[in-house]
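User: I'm putting together a teaching handout on how multi-component assemblies are represented. Below are the sequence lines for each component of a complex, exactly as they appear in our records. Could you produce the 3D structure of the whole assembly as structure tokens, so the students can see both representations side by side? Please keep the chain order the same as the input.
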Amino acid sequence: GAVVSQHPSRVICKSGTSVKIECRSLDFQATTMFWYRQFPKKSLMLMATSNEGSKATYEQGVEKDKFLINHASLTLSTLTVTSAHPEDSSFYICSAKDRGSNYGYTFGSGTRLTVV
Amino acid sequence: AQSVSQHNHHVILSEAASLELGCNYSYGGTVNLFWYVQYPGQHLQLLLKYFSGDPLVKGIKGFEAEFIKSKFSFNLRKPSVQWSDTAEYFCAVNPLSYNQGGKLIFGQGTELSVKP
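Assistant: Of course. Below is the structure of the complete assembly, with chains in the same order as your input.
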């Protein structure tokens, strides 16, 4: 089946630095990818919709200048957390829609970001 | 506000007990509905989905869910739970209106603990 690879799985960074998270669809083309943030014992909060070749659409309350999303190809979307602060520590998950299906969502394994 | 609600935050059952987890949504119009499971330390996995047709859908591992349109509900059921069903369960909705971009909106999640 469809596979989404998310990298890195864990990252620790210092406050003020930037961190890039990659999300790749391995065996299908994804015109649309989604980035979620999951807090401990909480649901997945949709941050933004990443569209190949165009600007991402951010959900209300999500700072687009802080969470930079790039979807330059049909198989890769990246989320860059800029000038990270401890409150950005969280579990980030990407999801991709299979271009061949209106309903198929595949999730990455997530990235645990810790900002110290 | 439009949302997805899971009424049970934490459910504790003994093995062989029956399970029903509630999910209600507030989106009007046509929706696609999903239940996902997240085992400890693992990524989200699809349990089952509803797009159209028979409102009673069967998924993996003996789970089923019933879509009741008049109640905006999509409750998850399993006749007899096992210890291995211990996990976090998420209901998700894909509103099919023109401006939703295929996004998947998650409920708050229900933690299921099954005692052996």
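A couple of points students might notice: Chain A is about 0% helix and 55% strand. The mean pLDDT of chain A is 90.
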